[in-house]
Every structure is written in C-alpha cells, then in structure tokens.
Design goal:
It contains eleven helices and 17 strands. The radius of gyration is 28 Å and the shape is elongated. The N and C termini lie far apart (75 Å). It has a seven-stranded mixed beta sheet, sandwiched between helices. Strands 2-3-1-4 form a four-stranded antiparallel beta sheet, with helices on one face. It is 28% helix and 30% strand. The protein has three domains: 69 residues, Alpha-Beta Plaits (2-Layer Sandwich), CATH 3.30.70.2580; 81 residues, Met-10+ protein-like domains (GMP Synthetase, Chain A, domain 3); 172 residues, 3-Layer(aba) Sandwich (Rossmann fold).
Length: 355
C-alpha cells in the first residue's frame, strides 16, 4: 500500500473527475482508484498547483484534496524474460523458448531439456505475459501417425485442447489433440488463396480443418473447392468451419483416402491441387496429376528438405515425380522456404504449372 495525494469526490462525479485529472496530467497510473462509501479516492501524482485547483473548482461542484492510502496497480510483465528474471536461475534464462505458437486461446511451447524441471513455472509466466491465453500446452511428441496429430501436456491454465483460431478473417474450430493445425502456415494460406480466380475448381488434398479451402472460398462467388482428409475428426471440424464461415456450396468436405477420392470422383476435373503433406507429398504427385484437367493446371507442393540445396532438391523432386506420372512441368512458378523445422531442415514450397 502507498500513501499519495488524493482527489476525493462523490462517486457520482467519479468518471468526470478521472477524465479531468488525466487531462491535467495529475493521474497516478501506478495506483488504483478506491471507493469508500459514497466517495471515490483518485490517486494524484502530487499536490495540485493553484492553476490545477482552479480547473478542478470550475469542473467539479464538490471535491477535497487530501492524502490517502492506495494499493499498487498490478502491471502485466511485458516479456517472458521479465516475468521470470527472479524465478529462474540466471543461466536458464538464455534457454527460454524463443517462439511460441498461439492457436486461438492456446499457447503451444516446445521446451529444451534444460527447462524440464521448470515447465510449470514458465507456463504460468506465459499466462501472465499473454492476457488472451487461457491454456499453455507443452509438446510431448512429434507430429505423427495417419492423422498427423501430436501429443500435448497441459502445463497451465484451463484444461483442454479445443479452441477457435482466427486467421485472415476466418474462424477455425479445432482440437489440437485430434487434428493437425499450424499457425506458422498463415502466410502460405494467404499466398495460395490470393492466386485462385473465379471459376476454378480446386482440390485441397490434405485439408485438415480447412485453412486453405475456406480462405480460398471466402471472397469468391464462383469457385468449387473439394476439401479432402482421411481424419474423421478433422472433417467434422471442417464441416463446422464451413458453416461458421458461410462457404457452404463452395467448399465440399470429403472424408476418405485421397487416392480413392480422386479415382472415384475427381479425376481430370481440377485446375489446382494443394499438397500440404510435407512428410510424404512426393508419394502423391501422381494423384495430383490424375486430378488435374487434361490440359493441365497448378500444383502447390510442399516437402521437408535438408541442406545443402533445399530449393533445388524440392524443385527437382517434384519435376521428376510429375514426369513419372506421365505429365511434365511446363513452368516452375515459385520455389521458397516456408519455415525452418529443425537445424538445416526446412519446409519448402513449390508452385508449378503442370501440362
């Protein structure tokens, strides 16, 4: 508690008094306004000057200036380092996570081994620094399995892995324990969506909860996007997100293996294929080629590639796979590093026109 100069006013004048002392530069922001019965105590930076008193008398029919006791206003720490500087041994501050994935109201963190015994402390600090976060999850395994899901442990905050993530004006309902989602692909979602034109037919071959498909369809009136995934949980959330973002009729959700889906209903009908399965997309290049119209189309291909020449390696791998499928790459439109996933390992994206 702190003693400070105080403007004492009836509560009915409180809002007007606070605005006035702020305008005069007298409001002490580090202390909290207090109520005592029918009176409000407003903390001041110091005793008002004669000029300030004249302004107060002109605006407020009743007030007193005195000295009161105030509690300090709690200040949210601005950085994780600031929140933990007196709670971790100094040599561990350098090991704090440099990047945190924010998915809706959930923060996802990967901890280095040296912080194993401090994960709870760090997680509580993340809640303190980031006011919109309600849950902190620690990665407890790699993305894996047919459904590409990851194991997590709840480290702080509310229990649960379900949230709503907002990106580029779209809302995505999802459960991180049951579906794959990466906020680090936000720029890719936007970049690909911006290339699609009215009248196109698109297949999102590994659609997940729909971040490519829905963003493509949202601004366009005449587009058909087939969003395919083998994970029933992902397709259930995809259907929910289609309704939430009002793209019914433009995005068609399909549960099934992409090879069977293309062969049964989408062979030779699409203008553009999105292949966001970097772990093994090369194995499905023949499926993408089968989906494209006879005259050809665009493939958005992703893979994980290591040094020394990741861009050239990805370009060559796609070109050879297209040739093996009986087609050819007319032009490579773009080759780029999407993100680093490990030292000397990157996710690379290749856009290619296939004929």
């Amino acid at each position: 508690m702190f003693r400070a100069s105080c403007l004492r006013v009836p509560t009915v004048l409180g809002e007007e008094a606070i605005r006035l002392v702020r305008r005069l530069g007298l409001f002490e922001r580090g202390l909290r306004v207090q109520r005592a019965g029918d009176w409000l105590h407003v903390p001041l930076t110091g005793d008002p000057s004669p000029a300030h008193l004249r302004e107060l008398r002109r605006a407020l029919p009743e007030f007193e200036v005195s000295v009161c006791t105030f509690p300090e206003r709690s200040r949210r720490p601005l950085t994780l380092m600031e929140a933990l500087e007196d709670r971790l041994p100094p040599h561990l501050l350098a090991a704090l996570p440099r990047s945190i994935d924010f998915i809706g109201e959930i923060a996802v963190v990967e901890f280095p081994p040296e912080l194993e015994g401090y994960k709870g402390v760090v997680a509580e600090a993340i809640l303190a620094v980031h006011g919109r976060v309600r849950t902190v999850l620690g990665k407890a395994g790699a993305v894996g399995g047919t459904y590409r899901v990851r194991e997590f442990e709840v480290l702080a905050g509310a229990w649960g892995t379900e949230t709503v993530h907002r990106e580029h004006g779209c809302a995505y309902h999802l459960d991180l324990a049951r579906v794959y989602f990466s906020p680090r692909l936000s720029n890719e979602h936007r970049r690909v969506a911006d290339q699609v034109r009215e009248g196109e037919t698109v297949v999102d071959m590994f659609a997940g909860v729909g971040p490519f498909s829905i963003l493509i369809a949202k601004p366009l009136r005449d587009v058909r996007v087939y969003a395919v995934d083998v994970n029933p949980d992902a397709v259930a959330y995809l259907e929910r997100n289609i309704r939430a973002n009002r793209v019914q009729g433009r995005v068609t959700p399909i549960l099934g293996d992409i090879r069977q889906v293309i062969g049964a209903r989408l062979a030779g009908v699409v203008d553009r294929a999105i292949m966001n399965l970097p772990e093994k997309a090369v194995e499905y290049v023949d499926v993408a080629c089968e989906a494209l119209k006879p005259e050809g189309g665009i493939v958005h291909y992703y893979e994980f590639t290591e040094a020394p020449n990741p861009l050239e390696a990805a370009r060559n791998r796609l070109t050879e796979a297209v040739k093996g499928a009986g087609r050819s790459v007319r032009e490579v439109l773009s080759v780029r590093i999407v993100r680093e996933i490990a030292p000397y390992t990157w996710q690379v994206g290749v856009d290619a026109e296939v004929q």
